[in-house]
Fold this sequence. Notes:
Among the domains are: 1-40, no CATH class; 306-461, no CATH class. Helices cover 54% and strands 4% of the residues. The chain has helices spanning 3-13, 19-25, 30-40, 62-66, 71-97, 102-112, 122-135, 140-148, 151-156, 170-180, 188-197, 232-241, 243-257, 264-277, 280-289, 306-316, 325-334, 356-370, 384-392, 407-414, 419-426, 433-440, 447-454; strands at 201-203, 209-211, 221-223, 226-228, 319-321, 403-405. α10 crosses α11. The radius of gyration is 24 Å and the shape is globular.
Amino acid sequence: MKHKHIQHLYCRASFGADINDLIQFKSKSKSKVISQLFKDSQDFKPLELDLAEFSDIKFKSYKELRDKYTIAEIQKLRQKQQQKIRDLNYAWLERLTEPNFLLREKMTLFWANVFVCRDNDIYFIQQYNNTLREHALGDFKAFVKAIAKEPSMSKYLNNRQNVKKKPNENFARELMELFTLGVGNYTEQDIKESARAFTGWSYKRNGAFNLRKPQHDYGLKTFFGKTGNFDGDDIIAIILEQKQCAKFICTKVYKYFINSKIDAKRVEEITDIFFKDYNISNLMRYIFSSKWFYDDKNIGVKIKSPVELLIGIQKVVPVNFNNKRQLNYLQKMMGQILLYPNNVAGWKGGKSWIDSNSLMFRMKLAALILNNAMINLEEKGEFEDAFERYYKNIKKRNRFIKTTKNWSEFDKKYKNCTALELTDVLIVSKLDKDTESFIKNLQVKSNRNFCIQLMSIPEYQLC
């Protein structure tokens, strides 16, 4: 398999290839490399925090908590749970750097921006995150039904308030508009009828699905021209019968994994594949195996999301953040906080990741993490105020991102590489003439410093 094709595959299916990947796979066929990628991601390993400290209050109602704790103690416990959600964020970022489950984790990240959800309950949001992970490469039909029954989704889109006497249309609307069909591919009457089908859908305190039968509308509903005593599962099944559902998802897949510029012919091609059985693995295997996936027009043209950029740097030089909270602020500065999407529409992606302020910060990120560069708080950005407040009352030295770098791991892989070889590994997109001139004129004192310089050029923002 060609060098640049291995890079391209691993940039899209994970977070980049290192020199060992390139050496290992260059003598193998494309089909074998792809098969290995899927084999490594076949198993599902949930991401779970140690929540033992909350065992006494687990799934307790507020009334039950008041019988045992004061209001102040309850508030303190809730603050601890909030911290655990941040811990889950850090644990997810760490999981993304691991060499196992590469494709499953990349797909989990993708689906988190399709089935967008937010929750301040650590048990429920951890469960939700693992539902994304479990179904990431499986049956899309089962996936949608599982998502619809998640307590975090029920809370986020008010489906728990959806009852027979007063249907709440929020979940039904977003299910079609943002999750499965897209704007304009359903009617207002379809929303009303489907909302009736989801009435009574709720959850137990332990997070299990619960149908509150007295609150469910058992009457006839007419949805997409069909009439019956439909429940939520029936509504989802009818939605999936629409080829537009397969096209809607495949359009998102195309933009994320292939190119932000849509090729209508290719979208129709993969839609036909996906609509046959809604098997996510079959869809992704078809894409990665297609000759057109490796066309030059698709290589090195995707703007990395903040998380892709952050994880990519750590794959080159493994690091530990001494103050985990700084990971949170890096995400804020770049506009993507895992588990905390801006709204139900999720992150726009593409060019929205970059403006004049964020680009400068992103280009300094490698130096901030690996070279003790100081954060310039005069660079104004969307999250600058919160970031500045965080640092306002602490010593100047703490304006550095404190990390422990595993340079020895980097040296094992890249110490004997030439400057050209290191450039070929780290940079996927075509170099601008000015950048080429800049790199040629650099005095390469060590590959450690050179890798930081390479990760600070505009082309490193692309994959």
